[in-house]
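Researcher: I'd like a structural prediction for the single chain below. Treat it as a standalone chain; there are no partners to consider.
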Amino acid sequence: MILIAIGANLPSPRYGEPRATCGAALTALAEAELSIAQRSRWYKSAPVPISDQPWYINGAVRVKTALPPVALMTLLLEIEESFGRSRNLANEARFLDLDLLAYGELALETTLNGEGSGRLQLPHPRLHERAFVLLPLLVGLITAEQGIQALAETAFTLCRHGGSLFFCGSGGSTAIPVPV
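Model: Treating it as a single chain, here is the predicted structure.
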């Protein structure tokens, strides 16, 4: 299961309000030949860490692709850049944020191609700390057919990689996101 988080908290000059920008990101993912197998609804959540930034619109998708993880993350960074994203400061407000959360059962830590491109760590190292990511995943991407089995597997995977299902801890989000 390949999972991508989508978020935005600044109005985009090209796409408008954050929710519209997130919708345009779905289109950009599909145009990049990623097959969107499932998507969550959108949620509104406070910035993490808490600040005076505007609240975020967040959601998640499950995709299918033949791209390997590094190529997929590079594609996500290119889409963010095409939406006006610049990476100057950690936790800054943004037009669009696309995070590769998981790529099947793969555990990976590597550098991305190009100077200053950053690192890719799978599963995402802060996935278990962020209610704004977990809620769309657990509520939006678990179908009735998958039900409790998928929830149990998700919990097992998070715990196996050092996470927890509690929305607390260092840097964690304690505010529960609300549907929009």
